[in-house]
């Protein structure tokens, strides 16, 4: 059974304090790994797709990387508006499986 | 336009009511999804439509009935729901590769309908 574990569950940062979120996965035949951002009471917003180990994607202050066992979402010099829950999802041989998310809070 | 719209934003219904949720996208996507999300939990897949045909039903109770009238619209008909069905119902859409393999490319989500069953 495909599994996704995100850590930490919650993370508090000061504005400008860079950090990383982790997404570990076990899946038979990875077809894709996806990162989403979700604000309270809203639907997830698509951020990145990664398909193979070694791949990296960047968008503004966010950078996603992928290895054979895990993915990292690096946040450089975060701002309060980056506060949200970040969801990781993997697609293996069957359906998309979501992790429980990391709730990020960036204090000014 | 990368927007998925959902109506209504909020819905309160009794256990004997019949109501419908609506989802619309104009991105030319041929796969559409319904998810259920409880507070502080990740989205749970309910149904997938590909090319307007139901391709996945994740053992969802029959009190939830999906419908895809055309490639842009997706409905979820609700009947005789239980209080535990209260949740955020999310619609999503994605492109559907022609590889013949069921495949989820990037999904674009709507804002959701907050459903409360009393």
List keywords for this structure.
A: 108 residues, mainly beta, six-stranded mixed β-sheet, five-stranded antiparallel β-sheet, 0% helix, globular, B: 118 residues, seven-stranded mixed β-sheet, 54% strand
Question: What features would you describe in this structure?
Answer:
The complex is a heterodimer of chains A (108) and B (118). Chain A is mainly beta and 108 residues long. Helix content of chain A is 0%, strand content 58%. In chain A, strands 2, 4, 5, 9, 10 and 11 form a 6-stranded mixed sheet that branches. A 5-stranded antiparallel sheet of chain A has the order 1-3-8-7-6, with no helix packed on it. The N and C termini of chain A lie far apart (41 Å). By secondary structure, chain B is mainly β. In chain B, the strands form 2 sheets. In chain B, strands 2, 4, 5, 6, 9, 10 and 11 form a 7-stranded mixed sheet that branches. The mean pLDDT of chain B is 90. Chain A binds chain B through residues 31-32, 34, 36, 41-46, 49, 87, 89, 91, 95-96, 98-101, and chain B through 4, 6, 41-43, 45, 56, 58, 88, 90-92, 103-112, 114.
Specify the helix fraction band of chain B: under 10%
- Let me know the average pLDDT of chain A: 94
Q: What is the end-to-end distance of chain B?
A: 36 Å
Please indicate the percent range of residues of chain B in DSSP E strands (runs of 2 or more).
Answer: over 45%
Helix content of chain A: under 10%
Secondary structure tally, helices of chain A = 0
Largest interface comes to: A-B, 20 and 23 residues
Uncertain ranges of chain A: none
- The radius of gyration of chain A is 13 Å
- Rg of chain B to the nearest angstrom? 14 Å
Helix/strand-derived category of chain A reads mainly beta
Major beta sheet summary of chain B: 7 strands, mixed
Largest sheet of chain A: 6 strands, mixed
Shape of chain B: globular
Overall mean confidence score, pLDDT of chain B = 90
> Assembly type of the shown chains?
heterodimer
**Span from first to last CA of chain A?**
41 Å
Order of helices and strands of chain B: EEEEEEEEEEE
Query: What is the overall number of helices of chain B?
Result: 0
Report the portion of residues of chain A in β strands: over 45%
Give the number of DSSP strands of chain B.
11
């Amino acid at each position: 059974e495909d599994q996704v574990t995100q850590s930490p569950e919650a993370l508090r940062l000061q504005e400008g304090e860079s950090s990383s979120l982790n997404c570990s996965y076990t899946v038979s035949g990875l077809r894709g790994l996806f990162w989403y951002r979700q604000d309270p009471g809203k639907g997830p917003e698509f951020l990145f797709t990664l398909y193979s180990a070694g791949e990296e994607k960047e968008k503004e202050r966010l950078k996603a990387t992928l290895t054979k066992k895990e993915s990292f979402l690096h946040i450089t010099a975060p701002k309060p508006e980056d506060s949200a829950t970040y969801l990781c999802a993997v697609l293996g041989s069957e359906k998309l499986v979501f992790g429980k998310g990391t709730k990020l809070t960036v204090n000014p | 336009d990368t927007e998925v719209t959902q109506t209504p934003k909020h819905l309160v219904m009794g256990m004997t009511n019949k109501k419908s949720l609506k989802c619309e996208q104009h991105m030319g996507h041929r796969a559409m999804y319904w998810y259920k999300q409880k507070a502080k939990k990740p989205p749970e897949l309910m149904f997938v439509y590909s090319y307007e045909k139901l391709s996945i039903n994740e053992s969802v109770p029959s009190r939830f009935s999906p419908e895809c009238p055309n490639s842009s619209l997706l409905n979820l008909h609700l009947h005789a729901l239980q209080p535990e069905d209260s949740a955020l119902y999310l619609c999503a859409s994605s492109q559907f590769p022609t590889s013949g393999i069921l495949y989820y490319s990037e999904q674009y989500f709507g804002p959701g309908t907050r459903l409360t069953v009393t």
